[in-house]
Amino acid sequence: MPIKVLIVDDSALVRQLLTEMIASDPAFEVVGSAADPLVAREKIKQLKPDVLTLDVEMPRMDGLTFLENLMRLHPMPVLMVSSLTERGAEVTLQALDLGAVDFITKPKLDIRAGLLEQSEFLRGKLKEVARARIPALPRPAASPLGGGRRLYGTTDKLIAIGSSTGGPEAVKEVIRRMPADAPAIVITQHIPAAFSAPFAARLDRCGAMRACQAEDGQQIVPGHIYVAPGGRHLHVVRSGARYVCRLGDEAPENFQRPAVDVLFRSLAQHAGPNVVAAVLTGMGEDGARGLLALRQAGARTLVQDEASSVVWGMPGAAVRMGGAESVLPLAQIAQELLRLASAPASARRSSEPRSRTVEPGSISHPNQSP
Q1: 110 and 237 together in one domain
Q2: 61 is in which domain, residue-wise?
Q3: Which residue of 191, 231, 283, 304 has the fewest CB atoms within a 10 Å radius of its CB?
Q4: Which region ranges are annotated with the description Disordered (predicted)?
Q5: What is the CATH number of the domain that holds 31?
Q6: What is the band of 118 on the pLDDT scale with cuts at 50, 70, 90?
Q7: CB 84 within 8 A of CB 105
């Protein structure tokens, strides 16, 4: 059966363009459109769509209020349609907090041409969003793990996280469980340039660690989080006894810049066994090969499990390729990252994992026969 889509946007032009772009693919059926949330509410009851596209700034009720009510009363997959502005970025991140699965951006100028250029990208993302789970995210206690005890005092250990669709909320759930003196964390989240700084600011407010958008040449120190800027790759290199952020403008990998594979490969080269890395929810395969390179370099590796992931594309690919040492629910990932990072180097491989382990080769590579 085709995926039934309801388009909610106050702009008649945007409603028309989205309808044409989506309906051109036989995998979809655009069952209707609405100019404001009150009309949308009635059409959801009548038309029973599988997925919603939702604008933020609309008359009679703003998109965030509508989304909050929707997720409380009738949770369903939602793709936000956001403006490429600082205000648009902040509101979109709030929408992801409230349960939206993902977002696309509207250009500031020439909306028609800008949206039409994204046609194939939009349809691919909408298919993933329609299949996404709407998990009930865990809500941990306000105090981070560790209770303020000083467990980490060296830059030798690094935690690396890669994520995409569903990642902003999943990353936040991991970060809010970290103590103030945890090992430094480097993050590549697939995100546009206008959104990465607001995303880092939200991480800074949600837990005990300090978070920022990474800068070229910035020294990496414990207790701090470094988020790859949208539109630039993040590398980690060693400078003497310290690790340093390096930003690059190389071509996109896996259709992404920043790409998780780029970050993970740099860590495999420059930090190896001093790394604990995780791939969280996300569409595609980015990070899977990089996680395998890290595991082969002696790092400890884990991925988010399918049940707690919005989209099990990236974590599933990492498992298939043999890069995932263990598979964990989102609620257990922060604790396991800290446990592995705090283990002495001589004991890290012998320590007993608290999760299902996946040995290299136990699941065939997708390009190999079983």
Answers
A1: no
A2: 3-131
A3: 231
A4: 342-370
A5: 3.40.50.2300
A6: confident
A7: yes
Would you say 286 and 254 are in contact if contact means Cβ atoms under 8 Å apart?
A: yes
DSSP state of 259: -
Three-class HEC string of 174-232: HHCCCCCCCCEEEEEECCCHHHHHHHHHHHHHHCCCEEEECCCCCEECCCEEEECCCCC
CATH code at 184? 3.40.50.180
Please write the tens of the pLDDT for every residue from 205-215: 999 999 999 99
CA distances from 143 to 172, 183, 208, 254, 300 (A): 14, 17, 8, 37, 26
> Phi and psi at residue 93, in whole multiples of 5°?
-65, -35
Interior/surface letters 262-297, b for 16+ CB within 10 angstroms, e for the rest? bbbbbbbebbebbbbbbbbbbbbbbbbbbbbbbbeb
Flag the least confident range among 4-8, 146-150, 282-286. Answer: 146-150
Q: Is residue 190 among the annotated active site residues?
A: yes
- H/E stretch holding 134 reads none
Query: Would residue 74 show up in a list of annotated catalytic residues for this protein?
Result: no
Q: How many residues does the chain have?
A: 370
Distance CA 189, CA 230 (A): 8
Which position among 82, 83, 164, 196 bears the catalytic label? 164
- Determine whether 33 is an active site residue: no
Considering the domain architecture, whether residues 217 and 315 belong to the same structural domain is answered as yes
- Residue 245 domain-assigned? yes
Catalytic residue among 55, 102, 286, 305: 286
Q: For 358, phi and psi rounded to 5 degrees?
A: -130, 110
Regarding whether 167 and 65 lie in a shared domain, the answer is: no
Same domain, yes or no, for 121 and 166? no
- Up-side HSE of residue 90: CA atoms within 13 Å toward CB? 3
CA angle 177, 179, 182 (to 5 degrees): 110
Which residue among the candidates 190, 224, 233, 270 is catalytic per the annotation? 190
Residue 299 domain-assigned? yes
**HEC sequence for 49-96:** CCEEEECCCCCCCCHHHHHHHHHHHCCCCEEEEEECCHHHHHHHHHHH
Distance CA 122, CA 124 (A): 5
Q: What is the pLDDT of residues 171-197, one digit of tens each?
A: 999 999 999 999 999 999 999 999 999
Q: How many domains does the chain fold into? A: 2
Q: Are residues 182 and 96 in the same domain?
A: no
